[in-house]
Structure formats: structure tokens, C-alpha cells
What we know:
heterodimer, A: alpha/beta, seven-stranded mixed sheet, globular, B: alpha/beta, nine-stranded mixed sheet
Amino acid sequence: MSERQVVSEQIIEFVSDAGEGAQTAGQCLGTVSAKMGNGIWTVEIIPAEVEPPRRSKAGASGNRVRIGRGAITNAGDKADLVVAFNEQVLYSRFDVGAMREGTIILLDDKWAYVEDASIRADFESAVADFRARGCDVRFVPFEAETKKIIPDPRHGKNIWSLGLVCAIYDRDMAHAELEIERKFARKSRAVVDSNLSLLRAGYAWGQAHSGLAFSIPAQPSSEPRIVVNGNIALALGIMAAGIEVCSMYPITPATSISHYLAEAFPRMGCVVHQAEDEISALGFALGASFAGKTPVTITSGPGLALKNEFLALAVMAELPVVVVIVQRGGPSTGLPTRVEQGDLLAALYAQPGDAPKIVLAPSTHEECFQFVITARKLAETFRTPVILLSDANLATGQQPIARPRPKPQWFAPPVDLGDWDENVPPFQWDEETGLSQRPIPGQKNGNYVVTGLAHDQNGHVAYESSINERALCARSTKMATLQRALKPPVVHGDAEGDLLVIGWGSPRGAIEEAVDTLRVRGLRVSSVTLKFLSPLEPGLKEIFSRFRHLLCIEMNYSDPASYGESRRYSQLCTVLRAHTLCDIDCWSHVRGIPLAPSEIERAILDHLKGIEL
Amino acid sequence: MNMTDWTLEPRLREFELGDYLGAAPRWCPSCGNHTVLKCLQKLCKDLNLPPEKTVVVSGIGCSSRLPHHMGTYGFHSLHGRALPVAEGIRARRHDLSIFVVTGDGDCCAIGAGHWIHALRYNMKMTVLLLDNNIYGLTKKQTSPTTPAQTRTNTHPNGAPLEPINPLATAISVVNASFVAQCVDWLPEHLYHTLLRAQAHPGLAFVRIRQRCPHFMKGHLDAFVQDPGRLQLLTDSRGIDPGSLTQTVSTVPHDPTDFQAAMRVARQAEPIPLGLVYLNEGAVRYDEFTQRGLIMSAEEKLAVINAEFDKFAIV
């Protein structure tokens, strides 16, 4: 065995037909690496259908794993090594620009020997094509080797290939074996054993025949850590926040939150309610909230559209509720399994009438966890719905994060249930803050009627115009009150310069990586990530004033600048232009894949090129 | 059923009718809603339900204003959405008495999906369908229960379709447990129906046939004037007919017999009154949602820490 080549980071992909287990292989590789102390970020490659046709581009299923020496904050750019079980699914990775010159492709060559001449021809032309593009295509007999251990290689070559990759990258086999035990814990011992055999066989083959040997040094953390994807982080946050009811309707890519909760939540004496539709999921949550229980509802963009009428009621009736939205590609059914940040304006404005509410966007896995706890407190203190905007990139990507330390007070009930002071009306809006306390059924003397109709401080229906304006003012004042309590966002990089990149949500890691690269090259570029989108964090105008140019980068649609007055700005850009009157430009794309640092670098450079510095 | 209470346990709090009065109703004079409101208030008083432990939930429409006229907690929600809200209230609160008030447009049109599923969830609550066969608040549009050929503002030449049958629809839902019918002009029977519904352990669905003096003038007059066109269903598990037996004919009916219940539900005339369907073995979803209600913060903390262990890497 030759000396291992030390690399500081690697991007490895597994791609297969759906059902061949490439996702499992990638997840295991990520977890094993995280356990070794490496930074990781994983991205799932998911087809929209359950079992799409085999050997088809759109049917590609798998996982990208970026492994590094230190913390990894995004999925990175081009793959270094790809395991592919057929050449057609691999084409989908070329289409999204995931390959570079020199990418090592480990491809099963069984397709060169099948009876069907057209498949053989497709395979040969694809291999020639990949090589012409500069990729290092190597044949690996995945199925043939797997068949030596189990009869049906379709369900097993993934673990064999995991063993192979573990050998190539010097992964700790004790961790890998534990991961196999964990993954197949619900299966029979025989299944666990045959997968362990596959793992070891792949490893042995890799050592003997792959001719590839790298190592990715790790910096193990002394702090306790957990490895989770964004949806699990949200689910754990829901549990730790003292939320008692999760009311939901299945929708990709949010549903996996409830899958995990359905199993774990009852152990905490809490309930997952699968409602008959998106609308009733929020109605049920609001009923629970009215009755003094802490609810969450989880959905994605199309579900938000259906929930808007109830969201407005929650604003009007001042009922606390946490609404988690895991964004996907839109409009309409859009790209169900792919990432986009297209629901910001809908979250802010899509409800009937003027319905101010709190909107937060986690940008890391830690924030996915922590913001649920914050959201619950904000919802109750400000008596309002709180929307958390996550996205498909955070949802499915795995990351190691510091193990949270929950406190018993996180589980406290929302309000003291003693008798209500009958002299206090249920909407005693404070002149200065807009805040008021709410009675809960069961509290004596607190009897009132929640209504979506305009109402006075007693909750009585009131059609007088002055009362309606007073109530709208109170609800808006609450947002101003919260804003006064917030700190200005922290700028990444220098506090002044030529260009400030403004972003929100999951692109943060890629934006900061691009900014860091360009700063090393001497460019005066910084970035800022907004976490509060309603109300906006304070001091933005002041921060913006210290940069000569401002550029929003996000994953939703925008027109090029040449469109002039009719130009469609990206969504955060639209909001910030309105709020700050600053001339903020934008760059965005809606290709359904996470923003890569290199394309952000290019966007920044193009932008700087186009302006006089 | 005698409501006199001879218990020797002194009641700590004795409520009066006035405790259940809210804002003065603004319904048209002689609207059937007034009767339902009065019966509900009397029921609360007779059962001595603490007003703070009583919640009336409604959707949108004339009848859905009812919570505002009660002195209890209330939730005047969205058009068609009273049932999901009531389910959410019940989900973790077994101590509350929950009444849902909904109209024929609210329940059988915009809220039909929720209606079907609420019957199936069978969570403990009394659901009152105030069915006057027309949209009132929005001014005379065809509702799902408007008789065919009725001239309305949306069908000026007559409603083209036969109305749906709320009783038959409700009974047909698997796990529905209690379906009854009464009419607004017989308040004593209406009251006894509410009383029986309130005693039912699951979701009690009560359809109240109602007059709309403004938009459906006289459409039930023939039945009001001729008690011979009504029929009381009698059974030991059914609804106390009270003094009605003196004027209305009776027929024995086994509410647990699905086929018999379906026949009664589909009977246009005479209008059947009483308990049409009863399924005492129905599963209650609130027993599922209320599991684990009493867990301390420390116990919850132990569970969440055990969950973290599953994802721990150091």
C-alpha cells in the first residue's frame, strides 16, 4: 500500500437508482466522519417519485458528503470522487455542474456486458463522454463483488461501496461497523451480519484494488456533539421547547420532522396529530393554543398557502403558535424535493389584510434547534404566530453540532392558570408596547370570545373604525417593541468596505466561504446574515451605509438589472429596499440546488466588475 | 328525565341563567337561532357547567355568531373551520365542555372535509348543525341542503341539484357514534336532544332543522302546522320525547341498527325526530391525543437527553 495522500477536504458523492441505497451509504459516511472529528455537510439527491424508472437522469438518488479538517458550513462546489451504480444517473450530476476536470468516478462496468445492446452502447458512449470532459473514470465491479456475499446485489452494493470508500479515505471501521449496527437495528441479526460482511469486503477490495489512498485529518472536539440534519434539529427543538402538540399534514420536505416526532414525542407525553388537511392542521394547533397548550405546525410553501386564512386569524385573535416552513422549489407544486427560498414574501404578506407576525430564519443546524425554543417564547410573549423559515438544504443536510443543554424551565406551561382578574379585559393593549395578557379556558372570570372579526379590548365585535385602527396599531406596535429589544446583526468580515453581501437562511455557509476566499485575495467584501425577517433586526441602514455597494444573494427568482423599472428583485432584496431605501442589488438562482461558494464568488466578482469602485 | 338535584353535597358554586348570557343577539326576530341559544343556556345552567370550563366554538355565518351571545369562553373561528379548532381544544383538555355551532353552508359545504373527519375522530363534543337550508349572512345563496328548484340569488331559476342529506352522510362515516335530529319549533325536544348529546362520551352530531324567516319564508310551515308530518323515534337509549308524545306519533327505533338508522335518515317525511344512530363502541381519538398529559419537566428532560444520546458522537 502506497503512502496516503493527505487532503484537507473532500467532496464525495454516491449516486444510484432510487432504492439502491446510495443515500444510506452517504449518510453513514457522513456520520462516521463526524464521529472521527471531521467537519461534514451532506446533501441528499432525491428524486420526486418513490420508484422512478431505473437508469434515468431524473431518477438519480443519492447523497453528497463534504468532509473537512475543520467545520464545514455548506455543500461546497465540485465533487472529488463519485460512486455511481450506473452512468445515466451520473448524467444528472454533470447537468447541475457537480463535476470537475479530474473528478474520480467509480462506475460499475457491468453495463458493458449486459445482453441489451442499446444499454451497452449508452454505457460506452457515456464513459467516453465523461472521459472527454476530463473525469477520471475507473471501473469497479460493485454488483459482481456484492453477489459473492448476497444473492441480490441491488440491496447490498451500497454498503459494499461504503466499505470501499472507507478504505480509500481511511475511515475508522469501528465507527462504520457501529453505524451499520445502528442503521439495521430493527432488522434481523442475519441482515446486520451480512451488511457487516459487505462493509468489510468492500474495505478489503478497496485496500487491495482501488489504487486510491487519501486521509482527511480531523480535529476532534472535546465538547459533546450530536450529528443531525436540519429537520431532526427542528424536531429536537420542538421537543426541547416544551411544545406539546405537533399538528401537521404530510408535505415534502417538512414531513420527516413529524416522522421522527411521531416516534419520539409520545415518550415525552406529547402528541403528533396528522390532520385531514393543511388548513385543519393549523386550526387544530390554534385550538390547542387557545386552550393553553403549546402547539407547532410544520409545512412547506404549498401548505403555507392553504394556512394563510388561519394565520391571519392567529394574528387577529393574538394566539401564539409556531409555524415551521421547510421551503422547497415553487411556485405551485414546483420542485418538491429541491431547495429554494421562495416563501419569504408569502410568509410576510400573503394573509388577508395586514397581518404582522414574527418571521425567523435559521441559517445553521444549531439555529434550527435553538430558534424553535426562541420562537415558542416569542409567540407567547408577543401573543402572535411565529414563522420559522427553513429550507430543503438545511432539512436534509447532516451536520455535527454542539449537544444542546435543555433546561427544565423550557417545559413550563405558557401561562399561570390561576383566577383571572375580572377587571382586566382579554385584549388590554398596552399603549406603548401593544402587548396584553390572555386568559385561558378554565381561568375563572377570564371568559371571552376569540373572533376574527374586528374587536375591542373586551373581544367584543366592534365595527367602529377607530377601534379597528387602534387594534391594528396595537398588533403592529408589538413588532416595533420586539425590534427595540433586538441587537443589530453581526457583519462577517470588516465592518466597512466595497461590497456587503446580504443573505438569509441556509446559503450563509456558502456566502461566508466565498467572502473569505475573496478577502484572502484582497477584496473588500463582507457579508451579513439576517435572522429576523419580521421585524427586521435594527441598525441595518447604518450597517449598509458603511459599504459602497450592497448585494442580496438568495435562492429565489430575480430579473437581471437590465429589466430596469419593471425588474423583479429577489425577495429579501424587495423587503430591504422598501425598509431602508438603500439601492440594494440582487443575485439569485432557482435551480433547485444549494448555492455553491464558487458561483457566489463569481457573482460577487461580476458585480464588482460592473460597478465603479 | 328529571333535572331536580336532590344531592346532599352542597354545590360550591350555583350558576344562574344570567351567568351564561353574553352580548345581546342580533339575529332576525323569529330566527330559529334564538331557540337554540336559549336551550343551550338552559342546558348549561341545569348541568351547572362552570362558565370558565365551557367553550362554544363556531365557524362563520348567522348561526356561528352564537358564541358571542354566551357568557362562556368562545371561539368564533373561520368559515367551515370550527371543528378543527374544537378538536385542538379537546386534544389536551378533557376538563372542558365543548359545544360546536355550525350552519349548513359552514358544515356541509366549505367545512365538509372537516365534518367527515370530525365524525371519524369522535372526540368528545356536541356538534350542533343549525340547518336552515340557505346562506343567510351573505344573503340567500344556495346551500348544500337547499331543496332543488328553490330560487336563490345564485340560482335565480331554481337550484339545479338535489340537496345532500346531512343525517345519512354523518351515519355513513366509519366511527361516527351519535347522530340525532330535532327542529327549532319544538324547544322542549331540542333541549332534551342537547341533554342527551351532552351525556354522550364521543362526538354527538345534532342536526337542527331550522326556519329562516327572512330568506326561506315558510319553507317548513307545513311541518310546523301539522305535527302529523313529524315522527318521534323512541328507544330506551334515545332522546326523552317529553310532552311531545301527546301531539306527535311515535315509532320504536333501534339506533344501534345501522340499516334501520340509514332508512330513517333517508326518510323525507314524516320528519324523524330523536336519536337516529348510536355506535357506543366507537373509538375516541381524544383518548389518543391526551396520552401522557401528566409528565413532569424532569421526566421530559430525561427523555430529551436520551434522544440526544442517539445522535451523540462524543
